[in-house]
Amino acid sequence: MQIPKLDIQIILLAFAVVTGLAVLMQTIFLFAILLTVRKAAKGLRNEVEKVRSSLMPVIYDTRDILTGTREILVNTQDFLAGARGFITRVGPKVEAAAGDLADITHKLREQSTQFQTSTHQILEQVHKQSDRVDGMITSLLDTVDRAGGFVANVVSTPVRQISNILSMVKAVVESLRGPGAARQ
After folding, report:
1. In this predicted model, what pLDDT tens digit does every residue of 123-137 receive, in sequence order?
2. What is the model's pTM?
3. 88-96 contact pairs (CB < 8 A, 24+)
């Protein structure tokens, strides 16, 4: 049974489609990472703006430091409370974003490994099939060669024998004619 050359081309086309789909999936994952990082950055920007707005009164109040230490203590406590609040609000979000990013990276690595394994298996199967097809074609050509030799031998032997018989008949006819027959 001979496998058409198109089957190998279809396998290679399927391999190219699978590769394209894997690249598309990676692009989607990277886009999801980008959106997550943007969202986290926007949240951080809002938190920084909140802290900035809470710190601006502290900065304006520092002009009045000379008026009394009580105001300094109150502003310092407000600053520390704002900083603690900022760290308390932003810390879990940053940790969650870092954890999500680590999970996405881990999953991408796993999928990449699975993709490489699948690709390797497909290439091994293609190699095995091409070796099999090569063996089949070689066997077929050997058989055709042997059959051609056999047919040539079977046909040439009777033709030689007939040729020899015709040569003998010609020689006998010419010898029967003799030298006198050629003069008439």
Report:
1. 888 888 888 888 888
2. 0.36
3. 89/47, 90/43, 90/44, 90/47, 93/40, 93/43, 93/44, 94/40, 94/44
Phi, psi angle pair for 138, to nearest 5°: -60, -45
SS3 sequence of 64-123: HHHHCHHHHHHHHHHHHHHHHHHHHHHHHHHHHHHHHHHHHHHHHHHHHHHHHHHHHHHH
Lowest mean pLDDT among 11-15, 69-73, 74-78, 165-169: 69-73
Distance, in Å, from the CA atom of 2 to the CA atom of 53, rounded to the nearest integer, reads 79
Structural domain spans, the chain = 5-176
N-terminal to C-terminal alpha carbon distance within the chain = 69
